[in-house]
Design goal:
Blueprint lengths: L12 E4 L7 H6 L5 H14 L5 E3 L5 E3 L1 H9 L4 E6 L5 H15 L4 H26 L4 H4 L12 H11 L4 H13 L2 H9 L4 H20 L10 E6 L25 H5 L5 E11 L4 H10 L3 E9 L13 E9 L12 E3 L10 H10 L4 E4 L8 E4 L8
Parallel strand pairs: 2-4, 5-6, 5-10, 7-9, 10-11
Antiparallel strand pairs: 1-4, 2-3, 6-8, 7-8
Helix pairs in contact: 2-3, 4-5, 5-7, 5-8, 8-10
Length: 390
């Protein structure tokens, strides 16, 4: 058994290992090494001894070197080189324990952030103590009343300082902290293991919060007054002649509207809204102009591929299109929705149920369906003509 390290550290005293105390709270502040990391540490100490001493306080409580001390115990050491540090209070001492171990270890963003969150508490407490001693907080702090947690001098500065110490940019630290505070168990695990970036996880969490907020804001009773988050409109395009059951059946049997009349429709969109504009192949050109007229920006086209062909003058129609346009910055949930929709034709002008499933999965909020053929739960419907082929 070795009574002390062979490698001598200049101007360093030695302490018997049995006299060194381990503070459980300090141990919990130190990220645990993996078995592989600890094995490498033992091999290194066996080969080259210790290059630097462990650190203890005036009461021989271990502050820095938990893994080195453990390794030396396993190697059978009796004494170990030490450095003594003395702190005025437990807050300063705890900050030292955390900061020293963060600098030395290779940690993931999640691990660094978790340590930073611990540091924040101590930095804020230290700042309050300093102001208390300086008499600058006022009567409440003198009476022991803790300042509001959102006070920038305590919360903001402590967070910035913690981010700097753990080696993260403030933005990265804030995002990772949000994941650890609000994320799912799976999201937290992936962050801690470094499997996913903090920015990606943060974006998903904030996005979900926006969706949840939209859902919560939907009134119990939806009225035609609007405003609306989602607008589906299937204009009764005017083809220029009249429906004839015995002759030209390619035309609709319901009243149609001119382009100017359609332009005049006020469907009461919110500042951030999504528009789904149905058009036949004949009126694709006009549909794009309508989008611009209503103040929306075109984003994509959903094509309905029907199970059978219909009528047509130049080509037999088997497709219909729904142009997607947005105003402002509406919230969407893009997953597996594509530009093609396969669904059966259930009657003239009747839109497929599958389309509404896409809309409900893609966007949220108060929804309106202009010139609908069927009423739909959770939607406001205008110009509704009930159809038995739902």
């Amino acid at each position: 058994m070795k009574e002390q390290a062979v490698f001598q550290i200049v101007n360093t005293e030695y302490e018997e290992i049995k006299n060194i105390e381990i503070d459980p709270e300090y141990s919990q502040l130190i990220p645990t090494q993996t078995d592989e990391e600890f094995s490498r540490l033992i091999e290194s100490i066996r080969d080259v001894q210790l290059y630097e001493p462990i650190v203890i306080n005036q009461n021989k409580v271990l502050l820095d070197g938990h893994h080195r001390l453990r390794a030396c115990k396993e190697l059978g050491w009796v004494k170990i080189p030490v450095e003594r540090k003395f702190f005025g209070d437990v807050v300063d001492e705890t900050i030292y324990v955390i900061e020293t171990n963060v600098i030395r270890r290779h940690l993931t963003v999640g691990q660094k952030t978790k340590i930073g969150m611990k540091l924040e508490e101590f930095y804020a407490e230290k700042a309050k103590d300093e102001l208390r001693r300086a008499g600058k907080i006022g009567r409440d702090i003198q009476l022991g009343v803790v300042p509001n947690e959102t006070t920038p001098d305590f919360k903001g500065k402590a967070m910035d300082q913690a981010a700097k110490v753990v080696g993260l940019k403030p933005t990265t630290y804030h995002r990772a902290k949000t994941v650890l505070e609000k994320g799912t168990a799976e999201q937290k695990k992936n962050l801690m293991l470094g499997k996913e970036k903090a920015s990606t996880l943060y974006k998903n969490i904030i996005h979900k919060e926006k969706i949840d907020t939209l859902k919560e804001e939907i009134p119990e009773v939806i009225t035609p007054d609007g405003p609306f988050d989602v607008i589906v409109i299937d204009p009764p395009w005017q083809y220029g002649n009249t429906y004839d059951a015995e002759g030209d059946r390619s035309l609709p049997s319901y009243p149609t509207m001119s382009l100017d009349e359609i332009k005049a429709i006020d469907f009461k969109p919110k500042d951030d809204a999504i528009l789904w504009l149905w058009t036949t192949n004949r009126f694709l050109h006009e549909a794009f102009h309508l989008i611009e007229h209503w103040g929306f920006e075109y984003k994509g086209c959903l094509t309905w591929a029907k199970d059978k062909m219909g009528l047509g003058r130049w080509l037999r129609n088997q497709t219909e299109h729904c142009l997607l346009a947005v105003k402002g910055k509406p919230v969407i949930d893009l997953k597996n929705q594509t530009t093609i929709l396969h669904a059966p034709n259930r009657g003239h002008s009747v839109k497929p149920v599958e389309f509404y499933d896409v809309v409900d999965s893609y966007c949220f909020g108060v929804k309106v369906d202009w010139f609908a053929r069927n009423t739909r739960e959770g939607w406001v419907s205008f110009g509704t003509l009930e159809n038995e082929n739902k």
